[in-house]
């Protein structure tokens, strides 16, 4: 009888240790999911004042079996004098097999995304698209996105990151260039 009690105690202890390790490992990887922590690319766009412009700035590959409920997203950066709205973009798959994110947008708040196929695939990618409209001439930068979401029905999480740092140079008429080094303010 004592031997079976020891066995049960060891199994419970091992299960508790495994749960703690899984929680710790999950916490280490959860910080970068579902969005990247920093941009790996940059995009520069010249526009005229009042002209809306869009760019795909965050890409999320939904892991097979995951469901992400998007609660809200907030742009982070220097855009006083402009408005920035964020949208969800699901992939559009063209007849030639090309996957395009950013071609079609929908409201982000309240959207639910799931993996489209049970393996890692471009079919599981979605994006966050920014739309910027400048009210006055200037240089505007979106350097991050703060995303509130729920993963698999769990508690609310907040992640911050971006894949494409986005700079928009606005003037009237639109500037000829918006290269990294060109001052436009």
Rg (CA only): 22 Å
Supply the number of structural domains: 2
Query: Main beta sheet, described?
Result: 6 strands, mixed
Assembly state of the chains shown: single chain
According to DSSP, the number of beta strands is 12
Tell me the series of helices and strands, N- to C-terminal: HEEEEEEEEEEEE
CATH uppermost class of the largest domain: Mainly Beta
Structural class: alpha+beta
- Known CATH architecture of the largest domain: Sandwich
Helix content: 10-25%
Low-confidence stretches: 2-31
* Distance between the amino and carboxyl termini: 81 Å
Number of helices: 1
Content of β-strand = over 45%
Question: What is the overall pLDDT average?
Answer: 82
**CATH topology annotation of the largest domain:** Immunoglobulin-like
Note the overall shape. Answer: globular
Descriptive overview:
It is a single chain. The protein is an alpha+beta fold and 185 residues long. The chain folds into two domains: 1-30; 35-171, Sandwich (Immunoglobulin-like), CATH 2.60.40. The protein has one helix and twelve strands; from the N terminus they run αββββββββββββ. The strands form three sheets. Strands 1, 3, 8, 10, 11 and 12 form a six-stranded mixed beta sheet that branches. The protein has a four-stranded antiparallel beta sheet with strand order 2-9-4-7, with no helix packed on it. Strands 5-6 form a two-stranded antiparallel ribbon. β10 (138-151) and β11 (156-161) form a beta hairpin. The protein starts with a helix and ends in a 14-residue tail after the last strand. 26% of the residues are buried. Residues 2-31 have low confidence and may be disordered.
């Amino acid at each position: 009888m004592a031997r079976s009690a020891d066995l049960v105690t060891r199994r419970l202890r091992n299960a508790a240790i495994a749960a703690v390790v899984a929680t710790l490992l999950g916490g280490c990887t959860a910080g970068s999911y579902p969005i990247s922590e920093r941009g790996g690319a940059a995009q520069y766009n010249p526009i005229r004042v009042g002209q809306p412009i869009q760019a795909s700035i965050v890409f999320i590959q939904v892991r097979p079996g995951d469901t992400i409920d998007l609660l809200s997203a907030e742009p982070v950066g220097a855009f006083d004098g402009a408005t920035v709205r964020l949208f969800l973009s699901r992939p559009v798959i063209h007849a030639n097999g090309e996957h395009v994110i950013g071609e079609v947008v929908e409201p982000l708040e309240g959207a639910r995304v799931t993996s489209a196929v049970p393996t890692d695939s471009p079919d599981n990618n979605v994006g966050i698209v920014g739309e910027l409209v400048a009210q006055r001439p200037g240089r505007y930068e979106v350097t991050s996105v703060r995303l509130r979401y729920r993963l698999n029905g769990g508690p609310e999480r907040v992640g911050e990151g971006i894949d494409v740092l986005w700079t928009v140079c606005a003037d009237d008429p639109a500037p000829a260039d918006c290269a990294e080094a060109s001052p436009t303010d």
